[in-house]
Design goal:
Elements (H helix, E strand, L loop, with lengths): L5 E5 L4 E7 L3 E4 L2 E7 L3 E4 L4 E3 L2 E8 L2 E3 L2 E9 L4 E3 L2 E2 L3 E4 L3 E3 L2 E2 L11 E4 L8 H11 L1
Parallel strand pairs: 1-3, 2-4, 3-5, 4-6, 4-7, 5-7, 6-8, 7-9, 8-10, 9-11, 9-12, 10-13, 11-14, 12-15
InterPro entries: BacA/B
Protein name: Polymer-forming protein
Organism: Paucidesulfovibrio gracilis DSM 16080
Length: 140
């Protein structure tokens, strides 16, 4: 998880219920039940579990989200993330090992359909030297 200049942080072991609105970026690495609104980046940490609707500029998930998401710019699901709910965003990126269950509506900022999906994957492991030599012999 990258460190950002978060203005709002709910750390591991804390709990919050209700409406959370803030400017800038924020990180939740605990249990949160309710609605969250920010035009900045919201990061759900690996210990984070959010149940509620999210209206954000960007969303990066390492933990769990249960609820609908509206993101102005993008949603990024990291390895191990789980999102159950509908997503409205012009961009969805998902690493291998992330889980998404729901409907995806990809719209540009003006409401016109825009197909922009990204799958982030880990690079394949390097081949042993013997296999590389064999492949180069076969290719020539």
């Amino acid at each position: 998880m990258k460190k950002h200049d978060a203005l709002c942080i709910l750390g591991k072991g804390s709990q919050w219920k209700g409406l959370l609105e803030f400017e800038g970026s924020g990180t939740i690495d605990s249990f949160f039940e309710g609605d969250i609104r920010t035009r900045g980046l919201l990061t759900i940490g690996p210990n984070g579990k959010v149940a509620g609707s999210l209206q954000v500029g960007e969303l990066e998930v390492y933990g769990k989200v249960e609820g609908d998401v509206q993101a102005e710019r993008k949603v990024l699901l990291r390895d191990g993330a789980t999102l159950t709910g509908n997503i409205d965003s012009p961009c969805l990126a998902s690493e291998e090992g992330a889980s998404f269950t729901g409907k995806l509506n990809m719209l540009s900022g003006k409401g016109s359909p825009r197909a922009r999906r990204t799958m982030l994957v880990r690079p394949a492991p390097a081949l042993p030297k013997e296999a590389e030599r064999h492949l180069s012999d076969v290719a020539s």
